[in-house]
Amino acid sequence: YIRVTLVLGKKPSNILRKNVTDFVNIFEKTYADELPNWRGQLNLFHNAGVIVDEILNTSIILPHEITYEFSNVKALKNQNSREVLKTASNLMKDSGRSFFFIASLLKEATEKTHKDTAEIFMGIKELRDKKILKPMEIASIGTQPITQQEIDLLTQKISGLVINLTQEEKQKLLNDLAQMGPVEREAYLVSLTEQRKIISAPIEEKPGASLINSLKGAKKEIKNLKKIAKQARKDKDYTKTLNVSQNAVKIASNWELTGELEQLNEYIRSTKIEDLGTKMKSLEKEAKLAAKEEKYNEAAQKYKMSSKIASEIFKLGGTDMTKEVKRLSNKSKEYEKLI
């Protein structure tokens, strides 16, 4: 009964194709009684926006607010989600506003945590799914008339952001932005500035050489990558283990394989702990050797580095590192006194 038309800037991903198919099926099922005899009455579909957002996540471009109970935060399974939530809270405090934009949060969280975009976005997804991050209608935020100073600033921003437009086109864009409310205007400019694709899964379709075009293919590729990662970890090649595992995370994220994601994130966490543990032991061994040769400054520095690594392991969930951090720190101070 219906056809969907999308205006896109690039070739649609396989997950977008799947979501459009799902949307058509759900829409036709929801309005099964109305569609056969439909004669153009648009009011029949006034609730269709809920279906659009549920399948295509269109509300991702809206400003968001934090609305949660402490019990909800404790239920978060993904450590990335907690870090993203903290970043979102800081964004609001720094801006003095009660909302923020996902594009800004994605940029800020990536810079603060130094984690992959896929990991950050999965944290955002969990927070949105649990209604901890909630989109706000722009119309609900109070607006004020645009000032001449703001128009001048807009003119400068447009000149710096869009270089392929004619002067006439730039003027039209300026006029359109001036007619918007400040929040809607900011939403547009943030997306234009960041040039980020804010979609349900901002992941490359080809993390390796394989083209994945089905759920079965995704699961097969994840299984293959997990096998490679396992062998790399056995060979103590932790960099390769983490890189391969991250590729698997991207695929699982793209295809929304929640169970696989949880397993992969835990595997990555334990791999990081094992890697750091190996480095910590190696540094302590070097510190002991330096102390034996009466190179006390070097010994102190090695023990200090070992202590910092123990602290990193603790942050990853290695609760047994509490005593190690203190012990290694004390050893560092002990040799500093001998310098």
What report would you give on this structure?
The chain is mainly α and 339 residues long. Helix 5 packs across helix 6. Helix content is 65%, strand content 3%. It has a 3-stranded antiparallel sheet with strand order 2-1-3, with helices on both faces. It folds into 4 domains: 43 residues, no CATH class; 81 residues, Arc Repressor Mutant, subunit A; 36 residues, no CATH class; 122 residues, Serine Threonine Protein Phosphatase 5, Tetratricopeptide repeat (Alpha Horseshoe).
- Intertermini distance: 83 Å
Which percent band covers the strand fraction? under 5%
Note the run of SSEs as H and E.
HHEHHEHHEHHHHHHHH
User: Helical content, roughly?
Assistant: 55-70%
Task: Write down how many β-strands occur, each being a DSSP E stretch of 2 or more residues.
Answer: 3
Q: Report on the biggest sheet.
A: 3 strands, antiparallel
Overall pLDDT confidence: 82
Uncertain regions spanning at least 5 consecutive residues? 195-209
> How many domain modules?
4
**Number of DSSP helices?**
14
Structural class: mainly alpha
Gross geometry: globular
User: What is the CATH first-level class name of the largest domain?
Assistant: Mainly Alpha
Based on the structure given, which CATH architecture of the largest domain is correct?
Alpha Horseshoe
Strand order of the largest sheet: 2-1-3
Kindly provide the radius of gyration, computed on alpha-carbon positions and rounded to a whole number of angstroms.
26 Å
Say what the CATH topology of the largest domain is.
Answer: Serine Threonine Protein Phosphatase 5, Tetratricopeptide repeat
